[in-house]
Design brief:
The structure is a single chain. The strands form 5 sheets. Strands 1, 4, 5, 6, 7, 8, 11, 12 and 15 form a 9-stranded mixed beta sheet that branches. 35% of the residues lie in helices and 15% in strands. It starts with 6 loop residues before the first helix and ends with a helix. The protein has a domain at 58-220 and 309-491: Alkaline Phosphatase, subunit A. The chain has 13 helices and 17 strands. It is an alpha/beta fold. Helix 7 (248-269) packs antiparallel against helix 8 (272-295) and helix 10 packs parallel to helix 11 (349-373). The protein has helices spanning 7-36, 74-77, 94-97, 136-140, 158-167, 177-185, 248-269, 272-295, 302-308, 318-330, 349-373, 444-454, 483-491, and strands spanning 62-68, 121-124, 129-132, 145-152, 195-198, 228-230, 335-340, 380-385, 389-394, 405-408, 412-417, 425-427, 429-430, 437-439, 442-443, 464-466, 469-471.
Length: 495
């Protein structure tokens, strides 16, 4: 008679065998390899158990990414096209559109009428950078920025586009930029996460695109590298406070006992996620002390609060997020990402866009100036941008005073400051319709490669074995997106 094995027992034996063979095959080789590595690489653990660290001296130790989710209109903000005024309400030439794939929002339109910007532009700074009247504070700091007008992407709709620029792939499941930085460089402090995310309120279109936690997730990397989201109401981090009737000492005893169980499970099965779980519990306990002090801005001087603008006194605003970002940088958080929603202006630009710009203009300026005054900008990289741009042609009804714009992946702007970026530069050029790039295209992989570069990472050497591929943030193709990076270096844009 054949004895049937208990399914649970069979599962445990399978798991045990799997981890035994994996550890047996890799353990000795990994140990030998680790002895050959230079000590400067010691730091965070890679998928082989060996250190990653920096590949060359870093210009920046930390980064802040201010992400304008929904896609700001480059034509109305940072890509001045005065010649469009005389083409108002004329059809976009087919020679410019070149049969480009359109979204379902405008593919059925009978016409593609040109909509010039209704906003005034003027030159600013030593280089005469043209900036819209909607960004008066950004205009004051153009000599601190490197403006890139020629970023482009293949994605034409929000969800794949924002997933693409944040994780390097249009489909969900990959690790985000912040997770890669945490994995590759590790943490600079013991009491706060290496990657923190904020999603502030916004003034524009209320039916904004959703934000999914995969945008700051760890994907296939160990879960400890995922971003920790700060909330505007209640506990800054979910479950940070002890439940009623649970003292700090009691919680400590609970965690100690839980650690004992997890350590036994790790020794039995060798699952790296068990180690990540132990570390996350311990980080959460330390955050009970560190996070309340981080998020309490009552001790900030009056002149600092005034610099960030009136919204800094309203919980959950972009202004508060920028101030908290500076406080995190002071405490050596590796990567801070702020997702500001509501930039999806398919219509009613006259009402929605000015409100969005008021949300972010003064606080973004204040953040850069605050970092600069404290000596933190030199080794902190600041990035501003969205997932794609907007069309020069109008979506819906066109008037002189109001119009809408559809998605446009072929060209859009981003700016960077600090962290080894040469200030006062404008890179890339679009055609007279802000439709096609005519000089120095920068793919979103190039942009991410540059961010990694400033933090001392060679994008082609930071990889993780997943589904048979050596997966990278910048894609698995062998040629790698290095063209723009090399051009930037040759032009002196990378200081």
């Amino acid at each position: 008679m054949v004895r049937m094995m208990n399914p649970l027992e069979a599962y445990y034996q399978t798991i045990t065998r799997r981890h035994f063979f994996r550890q047996g095959a890799m353990g000795l080789g990994t140990a030998a390899l680790a002895t050959l590595l230079p000590k400067r690489l010691l730091g965070e653990q890679s998928s082989l158990g060996v250190s990653v660290g920096t590949h060359f001296p870093a210009k920046a130790k930390r980064a802040i990414y201010m992400f304008m989710a929904g896609a700001p209109s480059q034509i109305d903000l940072l890509d001045y096209k005065p010649q469009l005024e005389r083409l108002f309400d004329t059809d976009l030439p087919d020679s410019i559109r070149q049969g480009q794939r359109l979204t379902t929002m405008t593919s059925g339109q009978k016409r593609f009428p040109i909509a010039p910007s209704k906003y005034r532009f003027s030159p600013h700074g030593q280089g005469g950078m043209w900036v819209s009247e909607l960004l008066p504070y950004t205009s004051k700091m153009v000599d601190d920025l490197a403006l890139v007008r020629s970023v482009h992407t293949e994605a034409i709709n929000h969800d794949p586009a924002i997933t693409y620029i944040c994780t390097g792939h249009q489909l969900p499941g990959r690790a985000s930029l912040g997770a890669w930085l945490s994995y590759g460089l590790g943490s600079l402090n013991d009491d706060l996460p290496s990657f923190v995310v904020m999603t502030p309120t916004w003034s524009g279109r209320k039916m904004a695109q959703a934000l999914y936690n995969r945008l700051w997730g760890s994907g296939f990397l160990p879960s400890k590298h995922q971003g920790v989201a700060l909330r505007a109401k209640g506990d800054p981090v979910l479950y940070l406070s002890n439940p009623k009737g649970v003292s700090t000492a009691r919680r400590r005893r609970l965690l100690d006992r839980l650690m004992w169980f997890n350590q036994r499970a790790e020794q039995t099965y060798g699952d790296p996620e068990t180690r990540a779980r132990i570390e996350q519990y311990e980080m959460a306990f330390r955050m009970q002390s560190s996070v309340p002090g981080l998020t309490d801005i009552s001790n900030e001087p009056k002149h600092i609060l005034e610099m960030y603008g009136p919204d800094v006194r309203k919980p959950g605003t972009y202004a508060v997020s920028c101030l908290l970002a500076r406080r995190m940088i002071e405490r050596d958080v590796r990567f801070v990402q702020i997702f500001h929603r509501g930039w999806d202006q398919h219509g009613n630009i006259a009402e929605d866009l000015p409100g969005q710009c008021r949300d972010i203009d003064q606080p973004s300026w204040a953040l850069v100036q605050d970092l600069k005054a404290r000596g933190l900008l030199d080794d902190t990289l600041v990035i501003w941008g969205g997932e794609f741009g907007r069309t020069v042609y109008c979506q819906g009804k066109l008037t002189r005073e109001n119009y809408g714009r559809d998605h446009h992946p072929r060209c859009f702007p981003a700016w960077m400051a600090g962290g080894g970026i040469k200030p006062g530069m404008v890179y890339g050029k679009t055609d007279d319709f802000s439709y096609n790039i005519v000089e120095n295209p920068v793919h979103i992989h190039d942009l991410n490669a540059t961010i990694l570069n400033r933090l001392g990472i060679d994008h082609e050497r930071l990889s993780y074995k997943f589904q048979g591929l050596d997966v990278r943030l910048t894609g698995v193709e062998e040629h790698g997106p290095v063209e723009a990076l090399l051009v930037w270096a040759s032009l002196g844009i990378l200081a």
